[in-house]
From TrEMBL:
Region feature (Disordered): 347-366
Coiled-coil boundaries: none
Keyword Iron-sulfur: yes
Species of origin: Rubrivivax albus
UniProt xrefs under PROSITE patterns: RADICAL_SAM
Key words, A-Z: Iron, Iron-sulfur, Metal-binding
Protein name: PA0069 family radical SAM protein
Length: 366
């Protein structure tokens, strides 16, 4: 059960985006702090909190391909080998998905990771369906497919092995240098125009990155990953997302230039989104880490969201609206033009697709 909102969330801990077990919107019970006359509240507020361990919950998924119906997103299907993400990015728009598991979008999202251990088998079955036709597919849109658990579980690698066997094109987005491990699969597919990788770089400031994205690779390491991928012939892009006014927004052009110098040929950018429980988590983070700018940052975000913390409407949810949002878009497009990013390029090629071999012992129904 989550900590009551009447009790101050714990102080920040190194290596965690939050240790606040924020209640989620589907909670059926609520705990209230109660003063029993023995100084319990004062003790709870001042007690030392130990760093929470990460728990991996293995799951047998029933399906692995998720369809996208949003016109704001440039792919039709997505694969997320994990639920939750140990990187602990405080701003992550996927945090509220843990609510569907009756877990906290705060602490639980980054400490209770659901691993879809049969993801490769599910994908093999899906690609063998009689009515399946290859469509644009992205790995890691709501989790990082190369978070620490992947080193041992190798679920993402299994997924890419199936895609390579089927000659099915895909894109992938990550903050992790772990993607370099799978270059033996990705590079040959890239040579056939069937793979592209995007590396998310939110800031070039290592200290800010440690607080925003505590268990993700450092900015310097991500730039090195861009270079490694580019040198291997993989088309690479950069995601400068999310853009947070007065925090990482002043770095926009510098990040694009550093990524271009590291080998990126394309870029995209999304303005910070604060859906559901992300808003109180992020606002608490602001008060802990940049209290002098917290009110200013939230005021500018609300200005771009029609006076609200979040705008979920298609067409504006990724970019915001109003004068400041327009200026941001202009800065981004001008910088990309100056740096030679986002030039016309051939799309990934789905022509060679062929269904992968069925699982041993599985007979065709058709």
């Amino acid at each position: 059960m989550s900590v009551s909102s009447d009790l101050p969330p714990p102080a920040p801990l190194k290596g965690r985006g939050t240790v606040w077990a924020l209640e989620h919107r589907f909670s059926t019970t609520q705990a209230d702090a109660f003063d029993d006359g023995w100084g319990t509240l004062d003790q709870a507020a001042g007690e030392e909190h130990l760093p929470p361990d990460t728990q991996i919950i293995e799951e047998q998924a029933r399906s692995i391909l998720a369809a996208n119906d949003s016109p704001d997103i440039g792919f039709d299907l997505s694969i997320n080998p994990y639920r939750g993400c140990e990187h602990g990015c405080i701003y992550c728009y996927a945090r509220p998905t843990h609510s569907y598991l009756n877990l906290s979008p705060g602490l639980d999202f980054e400490t209770r990771i659901v691993a879809k251990v049969n993801a490769a088998d599910c994908l093999r079955d899906a690609l063998n369906a009689r009515d399946y036709r290859p469509r644009s597919l992205n790995i890691g849109s709501a989790t990082d497919a190369y978070q620490p658990a992947e080193r041992r579980l190798r679920i993402t690698r299994g997924v890419i092995e199936v895609l390579a066997e089927a000659r099915h094109p895909f894109s992938l987005i990550t903050k992790s240098a772990g993607v370099e491990r799978d270059l033996d699969l990705i590079a040959p597919m890239a040579a056939q125009r069937q793979a592209a990788v995007y590396v998310s770089i939110t800031t070039l400031d290592g200290e800010l990155a440690r607080r925003l994205e505590p268990r993700a690779a450092s900015p310097v390491r991500r730039l090195r990953t861009l270079r490694t991928l580019a040198d291997a012939g993989v088309p690479v892009g950069v995601s400068v997302s999310p853009v947070i006014p007065f925090l990482n927004e002043p770095e926009l052009e510098r990040i694009l230039e550093a990524a271009r110098d590291a080998g990126a040929t394309s870029a995209f950018s999304i303005v910070l989104r604060l859906p559901w429980e992300v808003s109180p988590l992020f606002q608490h983070w602001l008060q802990q880490h940049v209290p002098d700018r917290a009110a200013r940052i939230m005021a500018r975000l609300r200005e771009m969201r029609g006076g609200r913390d979040n705008d979920a409407r298609f067409g504006s949810r990724m970019t915001g609206e109003g004068v400041w949002a327009q200026l941001l878009r202009q800065r981004f497009h001008k910088a990309c033009h100056r740096l030679g990013l986002n030039q016309a390029k051939a799309p990934l090629d789905a022509g060679p697709f062929r269904p992968p071999a069925r699982q041993p012992g599985q007979a065709s129904l058709f």
